[in-house]
Structure formats: structure tokens, C-alpha cells
Design goal:
With 197 residues, this protein is mostly helical. The chain is 74% helix and 0% strand. The chain starts with a helix and ends in an 11-residue tail after the last helix.
Length: 197
């Protein structure tokens, strides 16, 4: 029964941090400036982000649940593998949505868009790599499995702490304000996330 639990908790904490990335896209603040092109862009992106944010939250919740249940290595591996795949797919879909929406109608909008799409694709690839890492763990040896999970948690932690600079830049100023007005972005984050200290 014992062995993986402390590592599982570390993994769960790291996953919480990762989910914050997509919440950066949910915007905050408000603006009354009339910029119809930007509002239209924000609506398109927010509408696409909402279901993906839910998918990421669900994957996050699945890992949290599995890691707190003292589950068998096989069950943890299976849940984590699916969750990382879901996260990878979700970030890829958000990247595709930002790309499809085109550059936001602001100064430097094209660079913001390009950087954000690249970052989202990189995050997607990182989660796909984590899935491969989890799939390759030895579930028959609990100690080895715990060590392997520790490595996964470390990678997750790095992923959650880096890589959202372009997303932050994308939603600075007018873009973030336009996104904040969209109903789909307001509710994209659902319940408050665990914040990393």
C-alpha cells in the first residue's frame, strides 16, 4: 500500500500548476472600448478554449483523484497516461484555435499570435512526451514505479512553471480585456484553481 503516495501527492500538485496555463487564457478585467474586430477575435478564441479548458480540468481532476486514492501502480499509470494525452490534445486544439482566429487586431498582434501558437504546440508535445514516459514505467516494481513517477512529477513541475510567457503576452492589454468580456472565457476556468505558492 505504501510507496507511491508521497510521490503521487507531488504529481498531483504539479498537475495543478499545469492547469494554470490554460486559465491564463480566461482573461480578466473589462473594457468598454469598441473594437469589433478584436471582440470578434476574442469570441472565436474563447469559444474554442472553453471546452478544452474543461478537458484539461477533467484530466487534472482524474490525476488528483487517482493519486489520492492510494491506487495500484497500474491504475495510476493508466489514469495518468490518458490524462496526459487529453491535456496534449487540448493544448493542441487551443493552439489550432488561436492560429485559425488569426492575429488579434492590436499592435504586434501577429507576433503575439505566432508566439502563443508555438508555445501551445510545445506544451502539447511536452504532455505527449510525459504520456510516453508514464507508459514506459515499470508497474510490477513499486519502488521503481515511484522513482519513475518522481521524474514525471519533476518534468510536470518544470512545465507548469515555464512556457506560459507567450500566453501572458497574448492576453495583455486590449486582448485580455476583449477576452474578459466573452461569456465563454468568463466561465472557462470554472471553479478556482489551486494556486502555486
Amino acid at each position: 500500500m505504501e510507496g507511491t503516495n508521497p510521490v503521487n501527492k507531488k504529481l498531483a500538485a504539479a498537475v495543478s500548476g499545469g492547469a494554470v496555463l490554460v486559465m491564463a487564457l480566461s482573461g480578466c478585467g473589462s473594457s468598454d472600448d469598441g473594437n469589433e474586430k478584436l471582440d470578434s477575435w476574442a469570441k472565436q478564441v474563447c469559444d474554442a478554449v472553453k471546452p478544452q479548458a474543461r478537458k484539461i480540468e477533467a484530466a487534472n481532476a482524474a490525476i488528483q483523484k487517482e493519486t489520492s486514492d492510494n491506487s495500484t501502480p497500474k491504475a495510476v499509470q493508466s489514469t495518468d497516461s490518458q490524462a496526459f494525452q487529453d491535456m496534449s490534445d487540448a493544448y493542441k486544439a487551443i493552439g489550432a484555435a488561436v492560429k485559425k482566429a488569426g492575429a488579434p487586431n492590436v499592435d504586434g498582434g501577429e507576433k503575439k499570435q505566432t508566439d502563443a501558437v508555438k508555445e501551445l504546440d510545445d506544451i502539447s508535445s511536452a504532455y505527449a512526451d510525459l504520456r510516453k514516459q508514464v507508459d514506459g514505467l515499470d508497474t510490477k516494481d513499486q519502488a521503481k514505479f515511484a522513482d519513475g513517477l518522481k521524474d514525471v512529477a519533476t518534468e510536470l513541475d518544470k512545465l507548469s512553471q515555464s512556457g506560459n510567457d507567450a500566453l501572458k503576452k497574448l492576453e495583455e492589454g486590449d486582448v485580455g480585456q476583449a477576452m474578459a468580456q466573452q461569456a465563454s472565457c468568463k466561465s472557462a476556468s470554472g471553479s478556482p484553481e489551486v494556486t502555486k505558492g
